[in-house]
Amino acid sequence: MNNKMEYDVKGHLHQILDTLPQGVRLVAISKYHPQEYIEAAYAEGQRVFGESHEQELRQKHEALPSDIEWHFIGHLQTNKVKYIVPYVSMIESVDSMKLMKEINRQAEKCGRTVNILLELHIAEESTKYGLTPEACRQLLEDGEWREMQHVRICGLMMMASFVDDREQIRREMQTAANLFDELKAKYFANDDAFCERSWGMSDDYQIAVETGSTMVRIGTSIFGPRVY
């Protein structure tokens, strides 16, 4: 590992960490970045990393320290679930009951309970995945999730629109925060596990912190442009 690269990752990592208040965790988004970059962040104490492709995640999991908490953040196809369920710490991008059922089924085979977040689609861009707020309410109201012994719903995840309008970003994140409070009160009032609000990336994480985020997903500001 060359020293310049190690310094860059280390310096940028601490720049981010120094701005995060207590109670907000950093998920370092390491997708498309080489293992040496993850090792540099790991050496500074970072333990939570996010990946969005099953094959890349599997390769990194096998090669890197076993105490890393891997978060899956990308769109997850049901036929890929079985490959990541044995070791993933959290799946942040659950956007359907079909996917939740498959995670539960595969986790049962492994004797695990997998932490998940329900992904919201609030942004106005059609390219994003996720449940609309109404679909999210309906999924929980239907109650099928209560029977799943190997899935633990820990909160909500969303991506704000990729725009320059900071007020639009704030509105979208506040919508997610309000929905979290509503669902917490209605379905999870006595469940301490339902506590995570995952929004905020390199360009907008400070707004995310102001709107109640507990986990920010930051890659570019730490690792630089994608390497491959």
In words, what does this structure look like?
The structure is a single chain. With 228 residues, the chain is of the alpha/beta class. The protein is 41% helix and 18% strand. The protein has nine helices and eight strands. Strands 7-6-5-4-3-2-1-8 form an eight-stranded parallel sheet. The radius of gyration is 17 Å and the shape is globular. The relative contact order is 0.15. The model has no long low-confidence stretch (mean pLDDT 94).
List its salient traits:
228 residues; 9 helices; 8 strands; eight-stranded parallel sheet; 18% strand; alpha/beta
Secondary structure topology:
Blueprint: H1 3-17, E1 25-29, H2 35-43, E2 48-51, H3 54-63, E3 69-72, H4 81-84, E4 90-94, H5 97-110, E5 114-120, H6 133-142, E6 151-158, H7 166-187, E7 196-198, H8 205-210, E8 215-218, H9 220-223
Parallel strand pairs: 1-2, 1-8, 2-3, 3-4, 4-5, 5-6, 6-7
Helix pairs in contact: 1-2, 6-7
Structural class: alpha/beta
The gross shape turns out to be globular
Q: Tell me the β content.
A: 15-25%
Unreliable sequence segments: none
**Total helix count?**
9
Name the average pLDDT. 94
The spatial strand order of the largest sheet comes to 7-6-5-4-3-2-1-8
Gyration radius, in Å: 17 Å
Order of helices and strands: HEHEHEHEHEHEHEHEH
